Structure formats: C-alpha cells, structure tokens
Amino acid sequence: MIELVCATANPHKVEEIAAVLSDAVVLLPRPVDLGDIVEDAPDLTGNALLKARAVCAHTDKAALADDTGLEVDVLNGAPGVLSSRYAGPNASYADNTAKLLQELADLDNRAARFRTVMAVVYPDGTEILAEGVVEGQITTSVRGNAGFGYDPVFVPAEGDGRTFAEMTLEEKNQLSHRTRSLHTLLAKLSHDPARTQTW
Ligand code: IMP
Asked: How far away, in angstroms, is 189 Cα from ligand 1 center?
C-alpha cells in the first residue's frame, strides 16, 4: 500500500481523512519536530502545496496536505482562504462562526460552499492536486456539537437539513468537501502507473 505523511496535525481533519483513505493509504503522522508552517499563499492551492512541500522536504517521503475554505456568496467568497483567521489572527472556531453569523444577520441569501484542495508532493518533485466542493447554506444560529470549525453553521444542500455538526463522522464524510477531494485524488493516483506500483 502507498504511504503518505499527513501534513495536518488537526485531529478532526486526520480522523476524517483516515476514515476515507484507510483501505488505500497508510497515513503516517506529521513529524512532531516539524514547526508551524506559515500558510501565506493567496489561495487554497498555494497553501496546500506549501504544506505538502514542507513535510515532504522534512521527511523525504510523499506528503499529503489539505487546505479548506468556506466561501459565502453574499460576502464575495469570504472568508475563503482566510477561514481560520476570519475573526482575527488567534480566533477560535467559536469566534469565527460568531463573526460569520453576525455578518449575515438579517440577510436572506445564505448560500455557501466548503472547498478543499488536497495536495500530494513526492520527493522526486511530482505534485498532484485534487479539489472537492460541497454546496450548502449558513444557518442563523449554531447547531450541533460534532465536527469542528464552521460545521455548526453549515447545512449541506444534499443532506436532510442538519448541520455537519449534527451528523456523525460517517454521515459528514458521505457528503463532505474533504471526502470528495480525496476520492478525486485517489482516482488520479490510480491512473498514474508510477504512483500505483506500491499499492
Ligand atoms: P485549514 O486552513 O484547511 O486548516 O482550514 C481553515 C479553516 O476552515 C479551519 O480553521 C476551520 O475553521 C475551517 N474548516 C476547515 N475544514 C472544515 C470542515 O470540514 N468543517 C468546518 N470547518 C472547516
């Protein structure tokens, strides 16, 4: 089976990624001696690549990184690439969701989407990218305790009206941006003979 070092240390993301990839990929944990990687690229693709490149350079192994943003139509795509810092440099998940609900107060158009860009970078310099998107609506108040980030304020269009934070991990993973990006990534990896020989 293929081995990938997971660039994220966020336990929620690792759990979601591992649940989707478990049959196809051995995920190695992010090295503990690797410091913070400054995510200063202008877009999700740039941030995913800089994280995967840094982990690949540090470990000399193939590395997997994701970068995700919540895009709200009426905010012209914000918070987008700045999703983790929407309410300020050290904002908590609760700070960010509170700011979002405040920005959308009294607005009828609550359309939004999560977008994930997954990147795999190999020691030989090969880079593979895959994107996943889930459309939905922003709620008017927080609902649910599962998941992380903006999950308590996001209702996926293809769901049953619950927020991601009101779903089990398995239910979120059936619909999520992250799962979709991973399925596209796996399809790309399986079409690349140089990358499948270890499967
Ligand atoms: P990151 O830069 O990919 O870590 O993600 C930026 C921010 O987006 C995070 O701090 C979370 O607030 C949010 N985020 C990322 N993925 C998800 C998700 O699956 N659900 C809810 N929020 C997410």
From this structure: 24
